[in-house]
Amino acid sequence: MVADIELNRLYWHSRRGMLELDVLLVPFVKEVYPSLNETDRALYVRLLACEDQDMFGWFMERSESEDPELQRMVRMILDRVQPK
Fold it and tell me: Using an 8 Å Cβ cutoff, are 62 and 51 in contact?
């Protein structure tokens, strides 16, 4: 179980001030993050440490992260909102 304090902190860190990122990250942290395993939770925190412009490119699928684990998290977030 994820502590409320941790979720609140991640919620605010997920609000980036760029609408395109906010609409992906905020629902993900509210709806999916609590069910992630410890490895993926740590990976999400690593993703939040990235620059907004880098994340924007990854989420708009204009580029990919050089880190395959970060790219896996990006894909996990995108798969929630993109129909297959």
Answer: no
C-beta neighbour count of 59 within 10 angstroms: 19
Q: State pTM to two decimals.
A: 0.91
Blockwise average pLDDT, block size 10, the chain, 84 residues = 86 94 96 96 97 97 97 96 78
Cβ atoms 24, 81 nearer than 8 A: yes
The domain segmentation of the chain, as residue ranges, is 4-81
Which residues, including other chains, have CB under 8 Å from residue 24's CB and lie 6 or more apart? 59, 77, 78, 81
Q: Which one-letter amino acid corresponds to residue 6?
A: E
> Which of 1, 24, 22 is closest to 12 using CA atoms?
22
Q: Could you tell me the two tokens for 16?
A: 């980036």
**Fold of domain 4-81:** DNA polymerase; domain 1 (1.10.150)
